[in-house]
C-alpha cells in the first residue's frame, strides 16, 4: 500500500509543479498576449475604453491585480474547466477548441501507437526467441524505417499513394463535401474518417514499430540467458510456457515503461505529421497557436498534454507494481 501512496503523492506534486510552470512561463517570455490582442483590435479602428476594459476582463488581469491574485484566479479557472479564450479563434473558448481536436488525435495516434506497440512487441518476442536464425533479418528493415524521419515518410506516402496512385486523400480528417455540416454519428462518416486517417496511422506505425521490435528483441536475448530460464527448461516445462510465463513477462517490463511515456504523448499527437496531412488534431491546433502567438490556447494544449502524460505514467506505474511485486517491495 505504501508503494501506491508514494506514487500518488509524487504525481500530485508533479502535477502542481507542472500547472504552476504552465502559468509562470508565458509571463516570463517576451511579448504580451494582451498587447497582441490590442494590436489586432486597433487594426480595425480606435481602441475605446470599453474595449480596453473588455480585454482586461477577458484575460483576467488588471492594473490592480497582483501576480499572486492572477495565480489563484488561474487555479480557480482550471478547477472550473475554464482555460481562457482563444486569441486566433476569438471568441471561441480554449476548452471548446481542445474538445473538438482531442478526439481526432486520440483515435488516430492512440490506435496507431497501441497497434505499433503490439506489433513491435510480438515481433520482438518472436525474433528474440528465434535468435541467431534467419528471423534476425527482420531487424535491419525495421531499423531503417525507424531511422527515417516520420514527416519525410509521411511526405513519401502522400506522394506515392495520394498524388501518383490517387488511392487515398491528401488532406483532412474526413470528406468535407460529403459532410458539409461537420462530423456526424453515421457509418458513412466513420468510413470517411478511417479512409482519411489510414495514411497518417500507417506513418506512425511504420516509423515506430522498429523501436519496439529492437528493444524487445534485445531484452528477450538478455532474459533468455538468465539462470531461472535455464532452470525452467531443465524442469522440462513446455517451451510455450517458458516463452510466455518466464521470458516474455520479465522482458516486457522496460517496454511497458516506455509505452507509458508514448501513451501519454498520444495527446500531443505527431505534430509535423498532422501538419503534413492537415489532420484536425491537437498537433495542428498547437502549431496554429504558436504561429498566432495565442498564449491562452498554447497554455491549454500544454496543460492537457501534461496531465495526460502524468496520468498515463501513473496508471502504468500501478500496472508495473501489479505485474512485478519486486517494484512494490523495493520502493
Automatic annotation (TrEMBL):
<keyword id="KW-0812">Transmembrane</keyword>
<dbReference type="InterPro" id="IPR000515">
    <property type="entry name" value="MetI-like"/>
</dbReference>
<dbReference type="InterPro" id="IPR035906">
    <property type="entry name" value="MetI-like_sf"/>
</dbReference>
<feature type="transmembrane region" description="Helical">
    <location>
        <begin position="256"/>
        <end position="277"/>
    </location>
</feature>
<keyword id="KW-0813">Transport</keyword>
<protein>
    <submittedName>
        <fullName>Dipeptide transport system permease protein DppB</fullName>
    </submittedName>
</protein>
<feature type="transmembrane region" description="Helical">
    <location>
        <begin position="7"/>
        <end position="25"/>
    </location>
</feature>
<keyword id="KW-0472">Membrane</keyword>
<dbReference type="GO" id="GO:0005886">
    <property type="term" value="C:plasma membrane"/>
</dbReference>
<feature type="domain" description="ABC transmembrane type-1">
    <location>
        <begin position="102"/>
        <end position="316"/>
    </location>
</feature>
<feature type="transmembrane region" description="Helical">
    <location>
        <begin position="194"/>
        <end position="214"/>
    </location>
</feature>
<comment type="similarity">
    <text>Belongs to the binding-protein-dependent transport system permease family.</text>
</comment>
<keyword id="KW-1133">Transmembrane helix</keyword>
<feature type="transmembrane region" description="Helical">
    <location>
        <begin position="297"/>
        <end position="323"/>
    </location>
</feature>
<feature type="transmembrane region" description="Helical">
    <location>
        <begin position="150"/>
        <end position="174"/>
    </location>
</feature>
<dbReference type="GO" id="GO:0055085">
    <property type="term" value="P:transmembrane transport"/>
</dbReference>
<feature type="transmembrane region" description="Helical">
    <location>
        <begin position="104"/>
        <end position="129"/>
    </location>
</feature>
<dbReference type="Pfam" id="PF00528">
    <property type="entry name" value="BPD_transp_1"/>
</dbReference>
